[in-house]
Structures are given as C-alpha cells and as structure tokens.
Write a structure and sequence with these properties.
Elements (H helix, E strand, L loop, with lengths): L1 E8 L9 E6 L4 E6 L6 E7 L2 E8 L8 E7 L5 E6 L19 H14 L13 H25 L7 H48 L6 H14 L6 H25 L10 H14 L6 H15 L3 H7 L2
Helix pairs in contact: 1-2, 3-4, 3-6, 3-7, 3-8, 4-5, 5-6, 6-7
Length: about 325
C-alpha cells in the first residue's frame, strides 16, 4: 500500500488544531485520520488505492473547513495540496471609532451665552446701538458655525458607518458560506436516504418474486442502486444524470422481472412493484442543476412514501 501525503495551505495559523479524516464514500467508513504538522504537512501511511473523501476539521467550527474528493493512485505515493480559505476563520470585531471631541462646540456655545446674556436686560423703548446689534449678529454666526461643526463631528456625511457596513458584509459572507455547506450536506444526506430506501424496495421486490441471490435480474437491480450510493457526493448535475441512468436501467430490469414471472398475475399489482415503480419514476424525472432545486425534488420522495423515510430506513436495519 502507498502513502497519502497532504500539504495544507492557505492559513498556517490553524494548522496545529486541524484534524484530517479520509473516508471511503461507498461505505462511509473513516479509513485514516491524522493531524498535520505546523507547516501543514501530513503523511497517512498504507492507504489502499481508490476514491476517497477528505474532510479537514477544526474544533471551533461545527462544519468541516474543507471537503474534497481525492483518488489514491495504485503506484507510488499520492501527493495532494489542500487550500484552506482564511475567511472561514474570520471574525473581525467591530471597529472602535474614537468618540468625537465635542469640547470646542460646547466652549463656543458657552461663550455665545455669556456674551449675549447682558443684552437680555434691555427695557421697552431703550435704543439698540450698533455695537449691541453687531454683538448679536456675530454670536448668531458663531452658533451657526458650532452647529455645523457638531453635524460633522457626530454624523458623517451620508450617515454611513463604515465599521458597521464592513461587519455586516462579513456576517453576510459567512452566513452565505454556511448556508451553502448546510445545503450541500442536507442534499447528500437525502441522497443516502433515497439510495437506501430504493435498495430496500429492491430487496422487497426480489424476495416477493423469489429471485435467488445469484439471479442476474437481482444482481442488475442491486448494481443500479449501488451507482446511486457511489454518487452521493457528486455535483447536482452529475447526480441527476446518474439518477436518470439508474432509473432507465431499473425500469428495464423491472419489466424483465415481470415478464419472467408472467405466471404470477398478482405480482404487477403488488405493493413491492408499485413502490419500486414510483421510485424509478422519481429517478427518471430528476433534472436538477443545483442543491436547492435538488432538495425540492428529493422532497417528492417523502411526499410519495410518507415523511418517515429516515425512520423507516433506520428502523428496518
């Protein structure tokens, strides 16, 4: 067996806390796990050749930092570089903007108050001299200037707060990333549930039809379902294509099973045939191109067979 050599790049500050799992996608079993050195290098010895799913995890994050499909070559050591996005760890605090110094404004308005206060003692009929008028006009201009300075100090032009805008943009980016990861994980989980449900429906059908373990029809149906299980981590367009192909193959084999058992008139209308036929129809109609639309399509299985799909699959294990 060859060694798998990994080189984790992008954000060396978290290398010492990372953990890497190498999983066999066909069984979901973690075949190797390890922690990289501070420089991001990790060697996993004696990894059998084949396709695997790598998950890089960090204790401060609920979801893996990075997930990627790899293939270990049958000859020589396999070297793979993994690039971590540093924004997955970004949590910038809101910038601390210094408080505006309102002391000059306060001093200016206080000076105006003290200057014009003597002018408030005028009596009816008493003349207002040019000097008094000039004092009032000059201090009115000083108040207007103080108010102008106050608006510039307290409220920026346009009333924007860049430190809040930057933080909101960061939160929005982090939320979008999290939503993408959760949607992907939910789609892959639904794929596994669907594959296992169809596998059980195939088992029920072949038992009802009395097909032996070495029967070619039985093996062909199970082989078609295995294609679904092996494609649970594929992108939505690829998984949709696999689903359609499996649906066509399974429909052909199902019809052959019915032809072989023509002597059993109750078989075509049996619950086993109807259940598998419904699943085949759903597979053949899968034309999704994104995880969001795929989740909507996969929900049709729950609407068709009831909402207990997961509990039914687990309960019959």
């Amino acid at each position: 067996m060859q060694a798998l050599r990994l080189n984790i790049l992008g954000f060396p500050q978290v290398n010492r806390d990372l953990e890497v799992d190498v999983t066999d996608p066909s069984t979901g079993t973690v075949v190797r796990t390890g922690r990289p050195f501070l420089d991001g290098t990790l060697t996993l010895p004696q990894v059998p050749p084949g396709a695997y799913q790598i998950a890089v995890k960090h204790p401060n994050l609920a979801l893996p930092v990075l997930q990627q499909q790899i293939r270990v070559l049958p000859v020589g050591d396999t070297q793979i570089s993994l690039l971590i996005d540093p924004t997955r760890f970004r949590n910038t605090p809101i910038a601390d903007i210094p408080d505006a110094n309102l002391g000059p404004v306060r001093d200016a308005t206080t000076s105006v108050e003290q200057t014009v206060q003597p002018l408030a003692a005028k009596r009816p009929g008493e003349a207002i001299t040019a000097a008094d008028w000039n004092v009032m006009a000059g201090n009115l201009a000083a108040v207007a200037n103080a108010v102008t300075q106050l608006t510039r100090l307290v409220t920026p032009v346009g009333h924007n707060h860049k430190e809040l805008e930057d933080k909101i943009n960061e939160i929005q980016g982090n939320f979008t990333t999290l939503l993408d990861v959760v949607t992907t994980a939910m789609s892959e989980l639904q794929r596994q549930i669907q594959s296992e449900r169809i596998r059980r429906q195939v088992g029920d059908l072949v038992d009802r039809a009395g097909l032996a373990a070495d029967n070619p029809r039985r093996q062909a149906l199970l082989s078609a379902v295995t294609q679904l299980s092996q494609s649970v981590v594929d992108p939505p367009p690829r998984f949709a294509q696999v689903s359609r192909n499996v649906g066509v193959q399974a429909q052909t084999v199902l019809q052959q099973v019915l032809d072989d058992n023509a002597a059993d008139p109750e078989l075509p209308d049996s619950p086993q045939v109807k259940a598998l036929g419904q699943s085949i129809d759903l597979l053949r109609s899968n034309n999704t191109t994104s995880y969001a639309t795929e989740l909507q399509h996969l929900r049709k299985s729950d609407l068709t067979f009831g909402t207990g799909g997961l509990s039914d699959v687990l309960g019959r294990g």
